């Protein structure tokens, strides 16, 4: 028995049977072979869907896909073409579509893109020229102090004269830099001068203190208010009107003055009453003295009738006086 012939016949028969199987499994793909298994599977899944095919190698060394049992052909959905009626899924897609539309548009010159209520993006064409991007510079100022600093540093790189810079905020709220030939102190930070015209004051208390100082030499204004500016700092505003606090103080002074006047009036009234009492007492004392003087008058007259030759009358004089009295008494008695 020739085993070589038997073995060769068996291999040939198996290869033919394999090719026949693949051909029967998919007549539409019978003549299409793929170099890799992955390529064969991808082609099969395009018709039957993902996971519904497998690939086997044929006798020719190529790969053929075979649909799994029960798999059916999947109908390909029509590709959805994005447009400006239904919108674009991304803003970039809308921008690209707008640019293409402008290429054949003799009227419009620019476009804008916005997001619609459905979440998609839409473009709108316009005959107005697109505004160019505004480049910040030191003439119109920079929106942030950091941007001004960066611009100043870039300017110093090509400046053979200046060596440092300072940044301050302008009246329009933007920041400007000023170059200087003086070397900047590396250890010291650039100090922003607080003022009421440009930079403002970092705290409300500092603004109030500055306002009070300004009022000291101001013949017109009498009060002030403090408010926070757009840059976050505080500014004061002087006013010729009296402040509420001052008015309250003045009212307090008036009230105090009124109370003081009332007290003074009360003291005066009390003093008047006291003087009246004293005057009445003096008058009463004078009356008493006059009464006593009137009562003492006869006694004084009797004493005045006595001789005034000495402090004590002599016995002779006294005797003579008594004799005279006795004579009078006797004379009077004889007449009876």
Automatic annotation (TrEMBL):
The keyword Chaperone does not apply. Residues 1-30 form the signal peptide. Residues 243-309 are annotated as: Disordered. InterPro entries: DUF5633. The chain crosses the membrane at residues 312-332. It comes from the Bacteria. Keywords: Membrane, Signal, Transmembrane, Transmembrane helix. Residues 249-303 have a biased composition (Basic and acidic residues). This is DUF5633 domain-containing protein. It comes from Aerococcus kribbianus.
């Amino acid at each position: 028995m020739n085993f070589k012939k038997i073995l060769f016949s068996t291999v040939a028969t198996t290869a033919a049977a394999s090719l026949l199987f693949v051909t029967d499994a998919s007549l539409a793909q019978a003549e299409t072979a793929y170099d890799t298994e992955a390529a064969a599977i991808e082609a099969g899944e395009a018709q039957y869907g993902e996971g519904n095919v497998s690939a086997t190698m044929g006798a020719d060394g190529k790969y053929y896909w075979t649909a799994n049992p029960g798999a059916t052909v999947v109908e390909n959905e029509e590709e959805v073409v994005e447009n400006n009626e239904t919108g674009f899924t991304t803003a970039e897609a809308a921008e690209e579509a707008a640019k293409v539309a402008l290429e054949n548009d003799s009227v419009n010159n620019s476009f804008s893109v916005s997001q619609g209520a459905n979440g998609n993006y839409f473009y709108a064409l316009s005959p107005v020229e697109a505004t160019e991007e505004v480049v910040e510079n030191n003439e119109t100022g920079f929106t942030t102090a950091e941007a001004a600093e960066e611009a100043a540093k870039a300017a110093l790189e090509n400046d053979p004269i200046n060596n440092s810079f300072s940044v301050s905020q302008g009246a329009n709220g933007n920041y400007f830099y000023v170059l200087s030939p003086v070397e900047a102190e590396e250890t010291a930070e650039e100090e922003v001068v607080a003022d009421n015209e440009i930079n403002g004051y970092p705290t409300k208390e500092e603004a109030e203190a500055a306002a009070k100082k300004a009022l000291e030499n101001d013949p017109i204004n009498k009060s002030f208010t403090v408010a926070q500016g757009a840059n976050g700092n505080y500014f004061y505003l002087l006013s010729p009107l009296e402040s509420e606090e001052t008015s309250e103080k003045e009212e307090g002074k008036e009230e105090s003055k009124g109370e003081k006047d009332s007290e003074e009036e009360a003291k005066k009234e009390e003093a008047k009453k006291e003087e009246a009492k004293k005057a009445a007492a003096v008058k009463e004392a004078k009356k008493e003295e006059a009464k006593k003087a009137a009562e003492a008058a006869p006694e004084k007259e009797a004493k005045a009738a006595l001789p005034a030759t000495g402090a004590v009358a002599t016995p002779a004089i006294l005797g003579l006086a008594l004799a005279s009295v006795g004579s009078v008494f006797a004379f009077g008695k004889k007449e009876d």
